[in-house]
Design a protein that fits this description.
This protein is mostly helical. The protein has one domain. Helix content is about 55%, strand content about 0%. The longest helix is centred in the C-terminal third of the chain and has 41 residues. The protein is elongated, with a radius of gyration of 33 Å. The protein starts with a helix and ends with a helix.
Amino acid sequence: MAALIGAALALAGCSSQIADLPLVGTPADAPARPKEPGAYLPVNDLPPNRDEATMDPKERARIQAELIAARDRQAVVTQSVGTQGVGTQGKDAGAAAK
């Protein structure tokens, strides 16, 4: 008889009635469940069109040129730091090994 009751409880463990019991189901600090289940996400709905105009080609070209110049400046700085770091790292490693 006990095995039958245990099997019944094990099979019914996923049901919402047992999960909603205060001593069995959810912890005390858990948020309340919504009354209605959530709806499916709107997969085919497209976002509304933008109100503002897109960037004109001249402005886009100017911004791209600024970004390319910043990238080139950063590459030069990185190369100079990398070249200096190789020589000093070797000296520091040798001093630490002694």
